[in-house]
Design brief:
This protein has about 260 residues and is mostly helical. About 75% of the residues lie in helices and about 0% in strands.
Length: about 260
């Protein structure tokens, strides 16, 4: 299926919303839920390496939890996406990716409920669970994004920054991938948004990513519905024409029999 220009522009905006959500969740977990990243997993690997090098493994426990949660999230999201897309036609943004993002949203919603119920100050055990679940959600988001045309990054942005600078340095602005630029800006915006909320309205700190992911789901479910209707109309036309032809053949047959009887 060809992705029209207006749909490609829409996808850039939606990828930006997902990256915004990553920035929000990352800054909250880094500041108040375990002190580890939930999407910048290479950063957690550095934390683990530092702990090994300094023989202070206790400092790496939350980083290990976040890495484990992310790995499980990618595995579950990838498997779910594969199962849901086995009989589906290829698409620039397949329905299976949207459904995986919907599961991510449900996890973020549960995290928000727990976060708010504890007054943004969960105990140690709850903090561990929230950290793992947040990493799980963003791992699923990363797996869903892999199915979108171009495999845009919504969680790890170093590659997007490298691609952006390479394009600017060699081919100029025309070669820049808009998704990379928008994603980087939205990542910073999401981090700034939730950092501000942590400082001044901590209970609401995880609401922005919930809203951003919900917007992506609503827009894409509408698009999938429209695509299904369009495909149904196209595939329905041959059947309709065949029915009309069969009806005309029956009518002609009846007319011929009546004519021969009269003769």
């Amino acid at each position: 299926m060809v992705d029209p220009p207006e749909r490609r522009r829409q996808h850039v905006g939606l990828v930006g919303l997902l990256t915004f959500a990553s920035g929000c969740v990352d800054v909250v977990t880094l500041m108040v839920i375990g002190g580890s990243f939930t999407s910048v997993i290479t950063g957690n690997l550095i934390f683990i390496g530092r702990a090994v090098g300094t023989s202070s493994l206790s400092a790496a426990l939350h980083a290990i939890m976040a890495v484990a949660g992310y790995i499980v999230g990618v595995a579950i999201g990838s498997r779910l996406r594969w199962v849901l897309s086995r009989r589906a036609a290829p698409a620039p943004w397949p329905r299976s990716a949207t459904l995986v993002i919907a599961v991510e949203w449900s996890i973020l919603a549960a995290i928000n409920i727990v976060w708010i119920s504890y007054g943004a100050a969960p105990p140690a055990a709850a903090t561990d669970v929230l950290l793992i679940c947040a990493a799980l959600a963003l791992g699923m988001q990363g797996a869903a994004a892999r199915a979108i045309t171009g495999s845009p990054s919504t969680t790890y942005m170093t590659g997007a920054l490298t691609t952006l600078i390479e394009a600017l340095s060699t081919q100029g602005r025309r070669a820049v991938d808009p998704a990379a630029l928008v994603g980087l800006l939205c990542l910073v915006a999401g981090a700034a948004c939730s950092a501000l909320l942590v400082a001044h309205a901590s209970r609401a700190a995880l609401l922005p990513p919930l809203v951003a992911v919900a917007l992506v789901i609503v827009v894409k479910l509408r698009d999938h519905r429209d695509e299904q209707r369009a495909n149904g109309a196209v595939t329905g036309r041959p059947d309709q024409l065949r029915s009309q032809a069969e009806g005309k053949a029956v009518a002609c047959g009846m007319f011929w029999r009546c004519h021969t009887r009269r003769s």
